[in-house]
From TrEMBL:
Its EC number is 3.6.1.13, 3.6.1.16, 3.6.1.53. Belongs to the ADPRibase-Mn family. It is an enzyme of class 3 (hydrolase). Keywords: Hydrolase, Metal-binding, Zinc. It comes from the Eukaryota. It comes from Apteryx mantelli (North Island brown kiwi). Pfam families: Metallophos. This is Manganese-dependent ADP-ribose/CDP-alcohol diphosphatase. SUPFAM superfamilies: Metallo-dependent phosphatases.
Amino acid sequence: MEEAPLFSFGVIADIQYADAEDGYDFWGCRRRYYRHSLRLLRAAVEAWAAERPPPAFVLQLGDTIDGVNARRGAAEGALERVLAALRRLPAPVHHAWGNHELYNFSRDRLARSGLNSRPPAAAGPAGDCQAYQFSPAPRFRFVVLDAYDLSVLGRDAAAPRYREALRLLKEKNPNENLNSPAGLKEPQFVEFNGGFSQAQLDWFNEVLKFSDENQEKVVVMGHLPIHPDSSDRVCLAWNYEDALSVIHAHQCVVCFLAGHLHDGGYCLDSHGVHHLTLEGVIETPPESNAFGTIYVYDDKMILKGRGRISDRVMYY
């Protein structure tokens, strides 16, 4: 008899919906299917709802709507369409914030939106950091990191946190266009990325210390990849090495899930942590899709992917 999973959860990334004709990426060479992305999300929701049992929750890895909405004055309507599709799920959704959310809304506005999945009483880092953690089953913990806690996106230009982030960005990136990685020794220091504050890293370290002591397995999610072998060199968190150092100081983390890089990526790092970067819905042709369900067992997680996302077994 086939072993039953302890629980399962859905994963999806970079929907980037807009009610707009197809367009192209930042570099002008990759097609983006703006309207079709909502249809693909609805298909994913239908598939998850039909599973028996359905997933316990879904991880939405950021960039729900595209930045083109901000230029068209369409951000509120676009977000409501995406949230309406997700509300058809018989399970909660945990949201990471990506750069495209922050092109459309301030952090304050996002905190008052349906993209704020952090429980009101959740203990987390000080300030407006959106990091939090939850335990869906005994001996398992999930951590949602805020990869734009340190960022110039979504903050008022007069705010100290904005000035701190801008100073760091300009120290690392002398280009006139701060979205250009041209010539950089650390090409992740571009405006469309962000990083983790020291306060968030300290909080993260304490969560993992607790999980070590209680022999828990931990899955971490955030919009930005934190391992160079699961990404290209540009689409990484600014201080990805700091986040990796925290993870590698503990035994409990089994997997890090990210989006942002629409081609996806995967590696098993030197400490036995799986780094899975999901392919983006936005660059998925209408006849395909890009989502999956991860089935959790005592000794492994099995990803059943749809469309562009490949099946994968991740042992721990």
